[in-house]
Amino acid sequence: MDEFWNERNVALADEFVAEDFVGHMVGDDDLHGRDEYKAWAEEVAGMFPDFELDFDPVFFGDGLFCGQWTLTGTHEGPIPGLGIEPTGIEVEFSGLFIDRVEDGRVVEMWHQIDNLTLMQQLGALSE
Q: What's this model's pTM, rounded to 2 decimal places?
């Protein structure tokens, strides 16, 4: 996960994401397939080019890989789902993920972002 996200090695998705992957993105359209997963990662890098993700805590058991992540970075690209243009503001916000794994590959994901905190930090909402 660290190499995929923090080193921007999206080619690794070929190793750990199933071809028929489905990502349930709360508040957004679902992702379908490995290519859409890669495109999503590239979209995040476009919004926050200098971002770094910290994963803590992370749990694995019964075919589920889940945890919390925190993103820190500078908002340099538009956020289409929220209609927010680049601000240049440094942000820190969190989210949760649950990945269902079969045969060593992620086949399904549920993903939740703390959009409230993000929007407040970007000045899109008042405190």
A: 0.91
